[in-house]
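retry 2 of 3: previous attempt timed out while embedding calcium ion. Reduced batch size to 1 and resubmitted. Inputs unchanged:
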Amino acid sequence: EEAAREGVFWRVAEADQSQLERQVTLMGELDDALTSGAIEVHYQPKLLLSENRIVSVEALVRWRHPERGFIGPDAFIPLAEQTDRIGPLTVHVLETAMHDQVRWRLLGHDVTIAVNVSARLVASADFEQDVRAILRKDVGDPSRIIFEVTESATLTDPEAAVAALHRYRALGIGISMDDYGTGQSTLSYLRQLPLAELKIDRSFVQFSHRNRNDGLMVRSTIDLAHSLGLKVVAEGIEEEACLAFLRELGCDYAQGYHISRPLRAEALVQLLSARSNL
Ligand code: C2E
Ligand code: CA
Ligand code: CA
Ligand code: CA
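retry 2 succeeded.
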């Protein structure tokens, strides 16, 4: 029995070891990927409900891995965060987004782009320096950039995070509270943040048209946000009935597979052109 238990122990240890090795390999590859163009930025439209137009998008990172195909962010963002690669990665996303934004503007499409900024980057002085440098050299328009941050970003070191967000706001960047409803933010706390927008998490939105409690939660969040002067985005809309429900509640923006999956830059341009020709 002892031997069997040891056997199990070693097998587990080996599994951990090989997983660790895989992660180390992956991180080495990520460094290369960042310079080789294998890290792609895709864009998911947000529909402005009052005008039925796509005026903004969320930048979502994808890794085109030579052997493994597309790797989604959930498989490498946490690792990038743990190994200090999240800064360079986010800088890459922001630079790519601002270049695409300029290209789209030349084609006649003014698009606001939201970039996800991890909790641990919000109060990072290095990241802030990089952002300022990008804004200095780029022709992009900071007032058409949004940083999506989660509540946890502002809870680890509240004072530093709140101060940093105010400085980003002063640069012209919009701040959006992502995944709203999954944390424990209070109203009085949210008021300290220079927010332009609140994104209601998919877990509340997805079935809000069918589930009474979810529906009530979404309704009261929209009312609360509006009373604070914030725009509301509902994410994870997968059905027409859900879209109709949110329209009825006065939600400002809708995002989800029912409107569009995240698209490569070229496909997004095609969609924008097709819609503006309607
Ligand atoms: P998120 O910020 O909540 O982004 C929304 C996620 O929901 C995206 O997954 C998107 O593809 C997916 N989604 C959109 N509409 C629907 C829908 O109708 N139904 C369902 N089931 N899913 C939908 P994705 O691209 O896999 O991103 C996952 C998470 O990875 C993001 O969650 C975000 O937290 C993180 N992430 C993505 N790109 C970046 C980045 O550049 N930097 C950082 N720090 N995090 C990123
Ligand atoms: Ca987001
Ligand atoms: Ca989200
Ligand atoms: Ca989410």
